[in-house]
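Check out one such.
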Amino acid sequence: MSGSIVGRTLHHGSFDCPVCKRTASYQLVRSQRYARIYGINLVPMTEPIDYVECLRCHSTYDRSILEVDGDAHARQGGSFKDGVLRIMAAVGLAVGEVDPCQRATMEEIYERVTGTVLDGRDLDAALVDVKRSSYRLDATLLALEPALNGEKKELLIRTAVTVAAAGGSIGKQEASVIATIASALDVTHIHLAALIADFHAPSSDGS
């Protein structure tokens, strides 16, 4: 019999990282050692330990750092900017790796929507995190949803649609991610369809 440490992500958000000295994305992880027999984790050998990992510099902290963080959104599981970043990452990865053209589109959208220039390292960290099998976009958005008004919910969905359509059309995998986003934000199918139709409608100048 041997022991192995198993960690699972409880939720994601953003916080003021002491090492990065700026707001960065984090994941809250619960780690516990299990007795392992024939490759199967059976019985917990220790009490679970929760820690916060910065997804930008990968420094780790006690979860109490979230309690003293001045940003209320961090305690609620994320900020609006973090939601924008993870939505873009999830949509961009729906059909494979994100290419340079898509990155440029994401950077442009992020700055337009949030008023902040997107640091490439933050985008890289979000892409790596969203690729993890344990990551759930709906959990991130469900934690964020209570702090959003209707306008911001629409803005997040428009962000997803814009990234998805950057390649010319919205594919089945991208549409599935957008549907997940709408569901987590409590946006109805009819409302979502109207937002997508509005995106594809010709502008007033005929373009």
